[in-house]
Amino acid sequence: MSEPIDTKVVSRLAAILKLNDLAELEYETENCRISLIKSHAPAPVAPMAPVAPVPAAAPVAPAAPVAAPVAPVADASVDLSKLPGCVKSPMVGVIYLSSDPNTPNYVKVGDSVTQGDTVCLIEAMKTFNPVKAHISGKVTKILVESGDPVEYGEPLIVIE
After folding, report:
1. Residue 151 near residue 135, CB atoms below 8 Å
2. 153 φ/ψ angles, rounded to the nearest 5 degrees
3. Do 72 and 79 contact (CB within 8 A), yes or no?
4. pLDDT per residue over 4-60, tens digit each?
5. Which of 77, 86, 144, 146 is most deeply buried (CB count within 10 A of its CB)?
6. What confidence score (pLDDT) does residue 117 get?
């Protein structure tokens, strides 16, 4: 006869999963193996919303802005993290280019920034951490979009 599941253990594991924003967590003892997987059902909704307007906007004037994000893909052979003006992610988290969806981005390509200016935010463990420019100059590339997950050391913005 199998032993009943300790709901306190499951609750603690679920709290750890949520607190650390993990996608999956496994726990195993001699008598029990628990695997928790976070469902991301709402996530596909976000990409679907922009997909519909893109075809409508592509034949119109926004065709030029669509070409701008393609340029960093062409530079994939260049290690942008080696550039002296590359702003790298100081932590793992989710990047935001503005303080909220109703305000403009901290910076855009072509903007001049001064050392110490906030260029984006990274959310980690429900805390928003400002990422500051380490040099003064002109923003030449923004390599991420708001809501993207980022890794430690990942290139975010290039300042020249």
Report:
1. no
2. 80, 0
3. no
4. 677 777 777 777 767 777 777 777 777 777 777 776 544 444 444 454 454 544 455
5. 86
6. 93
Name the β-bridge partners of 26: 35
- Look up the pTM and report it: 0.51
Residues 119 and 131 sit within 8 Å (Cβ to Cβ)? yes
Q: How far apart are CA 145 and CA 129, in angstroms?
A: 16
Exposure string over 60-81, b if 16+ CB within 10 A, otherwise e: eeeeeeeeeeeebeeeeeeebe
Helix (H, G, I), strand (E, B) or coil at 98: coil
SS3 74: helix
pLDDT in tens, 65-119: 444 444 444 445 567 767 878 999 999 999 999 988 899 999 999 999 999 999 9
